[in-house]
């Protein structure tokens, strides 16, 4: 899996990646912060006709995707410009449910404070280890040319809001995980052990290897709440990215099931479901996503258009 597999339908995969992330966020938002999400309330929300509104997760995913589109022929990431773009998005829609740390950083950046200074001001100088940098990285996997490149891009985008090592490494892990899902062979069953091996090898730091081992050791039939009790389900990167990965690995070919499983784990439901949705959507493409959900999703056309601009940049090796 080290050499990217060419995609026969890059547009479908790019759409699956970004729309899978947005659907997980929008479906999960209703339950964010609830300890336990019961099947019946999820089924009711799942089948309702009302629009699916997304939160800060998708708002920031859109900012990053647009940044990559706009920088077409230049270096893909400009940290200063990205920090400004994120701050403008927060100013335009502060009601999207931003994390306290991100809110503080973006408010400072909007007031003219350079991002390195703003990010260090967070959490008593330690910087944020929240999952806000991980939840927005999906588009990076579309333009990355290798796992190493995905990790590098993720770190560069993460540090503009998340100075803490764990916040940045969570973004690296999620970007690499989406990259591997995107380049996995959809015709063959996903080899879970091989996928996790590749992921471990890709990470620049060994500090997450223990979490990856915990995912590997999870029983195949683990309930969402049992998985959450071991892997975590809160708004920190280290206690949410592993749960998203596990949700994807439970249902790699069924994005809707991966999203439902992530939501039923409770806690940071929008974010964990968004990361799981990006992973599964990257593998199956948009055809794996329920049409009834897509029809209800806020700004689906805008997200689809961004995916279509990034699709030609998915590396082809065949
Ligand atoms: N903020 C929320 N949800 C709260 C409720 C929203 C409500 N529905 C509404 O509409 O108002 N969700 C969003 O925030 C998470 C992403 O967070 P981000 O961007 O990383 O922010 P932050 O605040 O930096 O980190 C999140 C939490 O992690 C803990 N934390 C982080 N670093 C810490 C440190 N150095 N020391 C101690 N704690 C640290 C804090 O609890 C942070 O608040 C997503 O869930 C997104 O959906
Ligand atoms: Mg959110
Ligand atoms: Mg959240």
Key traits:
Ribosyl_crysJ1_sf, binds magnesium ion, disordered N terminus, globular, 318 residues, Ribosyl_crysJ1, binds ADP-ribosyl-L-arginine, ADP-ribosylglycohydrolase family protein, mainly alpha, single chain, ADP-ribosylglycohydrolase fold
How would you sum up this structure, described in words?
The chain is mostly helical and 318 residues long. 60% of the residues lie in helices and 0% in strands. Mean pLDDT is 95; it is low at 1-6. It has helices at residues 10-28, 39-47, 56-70, 79-92, 100-110, 115-120, 138-143, 147-158, 165-182, 192-202, 209-217, 224-231, 241-250, 255-264, 269-284, 291-296, 300-310. It starts with 9 loop residues before the first helix and ends in an 8-residue tail after the last helix. The chain has a single domain, classed as ADP-ribosylglycohydrolase fold, CATH 1.10.4080. It binds ADP-ribosyl-L-arginine and magnesium ion (2 copies). One magnesium ion (MG) binds at residues 55-57, 97, 270-271. Pfam families: ADP_ribosyl_GH.
């Amino acid at each position: 899996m080290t050499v990217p597999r060419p995609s026969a339908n890059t547009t479908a995969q790019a759409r699956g990646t970004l729309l899978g992330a947005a659907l997980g966020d929008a479906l999960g938002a209703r339950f964010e912060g609830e300890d336990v999400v019961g099947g019946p309330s999820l089924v009711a929300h799942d089948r309702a006709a009302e629009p699916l509104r997304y939160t800060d997760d998708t708002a920031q995913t859109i900012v990053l995707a647009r940044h990559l589109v706009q920088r077409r022929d230049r270096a893909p990431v400009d940290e200063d410009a990205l920090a400004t773009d994120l701050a403008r998005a927060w100013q335009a829609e502060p009601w999207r449910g931003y994390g306290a740390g991100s809110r503080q950083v973006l408010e400072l950046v909007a007031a003219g404070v350079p991002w390195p200074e703003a990010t260090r001001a967070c959490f008593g100088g330690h910087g944020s280890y929240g999952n806000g940098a991980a939840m927005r990285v999906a588009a990076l996997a579309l333009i990355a040319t290798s796992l190493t490149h995905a990790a590098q891009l993720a770190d560069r985008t993460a540090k503009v809001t998340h100075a803490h090592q764990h916040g940045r490494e969570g973004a690296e892990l999620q970007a690499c995980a989406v990259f591997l899902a995107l380049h996995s062979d959809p015709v063959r069953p996903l080899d879970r052990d091989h996928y996790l091996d590749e992921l471990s090898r890709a990470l620049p730091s060994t500090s997450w290897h223990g979490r990856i081992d915990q995912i590997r050791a999870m029983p195949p039939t683990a309930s969402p709440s049992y998985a959450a009790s071991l892997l975590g389900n809160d708004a920190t990167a280290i206690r949410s990215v592993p749960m998203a990965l596990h949700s994807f690995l439970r249902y790699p070919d069924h994005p809707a099931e991966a999203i439902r499983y992530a939501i039923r784990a409770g806690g940071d439901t929008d974010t964990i479901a968004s990361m799981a949705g990006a992973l599964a959507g990257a593998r199956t493409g948009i055809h794996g996503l329920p049409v009834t959900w897509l029809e209800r999703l806020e700004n689906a056309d805008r997200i689809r258009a961004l995916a279509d601009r990034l699709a030609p940049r998915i590396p082809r090796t065949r």
